[in-house]
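Question thread 4412

I'm putting together a teaching handout and wanted feedback from people who do this every day. The idea is simple: show students a protein as raw sequence, then show them the structure tokens that encode its fold, then repeat with a second protein so they can compare. Below is the first pair exactly as I plan to print it.
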Amino acid sequence: MKANGETFDIYPYITKCALDIICETAMGTSINAMSSNRNQYVESIYAISEIITWRFFRPYITDFIFQFTPKGYAFQKHLKQVHNFTRKVVAERKKHLKDNNLNNESKANKANNKLLGKKERMSFLDLLLNSSESSDVLNDQDIAEEVDTFMFEGHDTTTAGMCWTLFLLGNNADIQEKVYQEVRNVLQNKSTPSTISELHEMKYLEGKSVSGST
């Protein structure tokens, strides 16, 4: 990508954006990856991804040997931090759901949620916790593992998809301009969060995101 005539790598920015989105979607909590310079959870996700890639090209390193290498120690350290964060969120979210009946929101919250299109929307973690309350299929450990998988796999594929979309738009200036004008027409330079209804109005953007810039 280019900004002010200079080329820069957009991938790290998109990754942080995807982590923020997936974290709120999967766990119902904010990590503010885009606004904070350092975030232990984000750094651990990055480190784990890099170590997995490093090891992928070294199949001759067995699990037994790997655990005694510097990268093996680092992998276990970051994996523990990710697991601890997830388990903490699971415990806090579980308590929150018990203390607050989501169907008995205040009128102000209901109005705000309706405006933003969030009414009765629950995170992936909330759905799992509610499911565990009605059956013994999932315990807290199972739920934490499901959320870890959703987070780790989800942010990477989302990042790749977003970067590819931007790449295609950048290589099709006419389509990029149409998308830009549609966004401007719908949002009208507003500074508040976009609503679901506004996003639904962006038909051209949605069509090109699904079919590709062709």
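The second pair follows. I'd like the answer to focus on this one:
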Amino acid sequence: MHVPPSAGEFADESKPFLLPVLQFLECTGSPLLANLYPYFVYTYKAAGDMDVSFMLFTAAGTVVQDGEYGYQNMFDASVDAVHAAMERLGVSGVDVVVSETGWPLAGGEEASVENARTYNQNLVSHVGKGTPRRPWKVETYVFSTFNENLKQWQSVKQILGGAKTTRDGQGPVLSPLRSATDLKEAGVEQNWGLFYPNTDKVYPIIFGK
């Protein structure tokens, strides 16, 4: 993730493959679908050591000033960084559709029900306003509808060699999440949903009037 967003650039090795795709999208009036996760920008410190409020849309004001554009949240910065990266390749007529974004409710740093609710509610309230570079609605899809309790995961104990191996003894068993006590060890992968697998609501969110 590039901060400031105007420095956005695709990796050199991807450019020969991306450019014809982007040119095709521009010719056909189709959008580029991008999965953008401020949560991972924060936890992997991909944009440096930034406060979580910038990720959750709760910063009091501008955090990143990029020329004439001021950024209060990482979502806008991420979308505009993608636009800047396309423009570096000579493509300016392709919209960005955010095909996945969200915040985990358990299993990792700053992963909580409250932060997940805050991120997703603020996201829904915000996307209709657009970004500093593109002040119109950003089509966006929240990940995900349900927690994925059967999603496979590799436990810490297995990685350290203190648990079962596969039947042929060649590697760790990948086990589904079985109980709440496994939540922390399992990490964030199972815990992005607005609903539990039994359809109970995890937290309330308003999607519009």
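Top answer:
Good format. For the second protein you could add a caption like this: The helical segments are 15-28, 38-43, 52-55, 74-88, 113-126, 156-159, 183-186. Residues 154-185 have pLDDT under 50 and may be disordered.
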